[in-house]
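FW: tagging you since you asked about this chain on Friday. Here's the raw sequence from the shared folder, copied in full. Didn't touch anything.
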Amino acid sequence: MHIWPDCYPCITKMFTEVVRISLNNEHIIQAFTDTIETKKPVAPHDFKTTSPEIISDLWIIFQEMSGIEDPLKEIKKRQNDIALQLYPSVKKSVQENNDPLASAIKFSITGNAIDIMTIAAEQPVEEVIKKLEGFSLDPASTERFSERLRKAKRIVFLGDNCGEIVFDKILIEIIREHYVSDVVFVARTLPVLNDATLEDALYAGMDRVTQTMGNGIQQPLPGTIIGQLPQSLQKLIYESDLVISKGGGNYDTLTEEKGLDGKISFLFQAKCRPYATICGVPLGSPVIVNA
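HL: got it, structure written out here
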C-alpha cells in the first residue's frame, strides 16, 4: 500500500514520541522535528513510496543524531515480559474455545494493540486483552484462511511487534497441532520502532515453538521488501504454500510486491483511517486479507 496523505503527520507524531520516550530532551526533540520536516523523505508529495520506507530513512537519521541503535529496547522487553505473563492464561483460553483457530487469530492480530506507537497513554494489558476477546472476525475471511492452512505443507510466518509475537506463538502452536508442522517464523534483523528482532523473538521463546530466523534485511525497515531479503529466504517464501504476514508495515510493503498473489494472508488491525477504508471495516477492527 502506497502512502496516504494521512500517514505523513502520523509518522512525524510517532517519531516525536519515540524521541521523547528514549531521550526525554525537548531541545533534541525540537532539533529532530526541524530536521525531519526538511528532509525529502517526509515531504508530503511522494505517493509512490510506502510508510515503512520513510520510517526507515527517518530512523537512520534519529540513530545518527542520538547515537542510540535501539532506543526502545527496554520497552520491547517489557512488552514481551507482560505478554509472557499472560501467555499461560491466553493459551488455555484458546485451547478451550470451540474454535481454537479463530480465537488464536484474534489474540495474534489484536495483540498488536500493545504497540506503543499507536497508544497515546499506556493501558493495562489485561484490559486490552479483555477488550480484544470481544472483537469479531469476518467469518468468510476466517474460513478462507483456514482453507489455506488445510492445503498448506510449508508456511512462512512474518512477524511484527514485540508483545504480540508471544500471541503469535500460540497461533503457530495451533497451526502446527491442527494443520501443518512446517512453519518458519521470520523476525527483523535490525531494530526499528518496537518491531521484534531475532533477539526479541528468541527471548519470547519462539524458537521453542518453531524454526525461527532473522529476515537478513540490512536496514531498519519496519516492513518486508522481498528484493532486500537474502536469496535463501526469497526462495523459501516463493516456494512456500502460504505466507502469513503480520502487521501494517508488512501489509504496506508486501501489497506492492509481485508473485505472492493467492498465497499470502495478511493479519493486522485496522488502526488508522487508510486501513479501515481499504478493508471496509470499523476503525480498530482485526482484519484478515487473503490476497
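FW: DSSP finds twelve helices and six strands in the chain.
HL: agreed, and The longest strand covers residues 264-269.
FW: great, closing this out.
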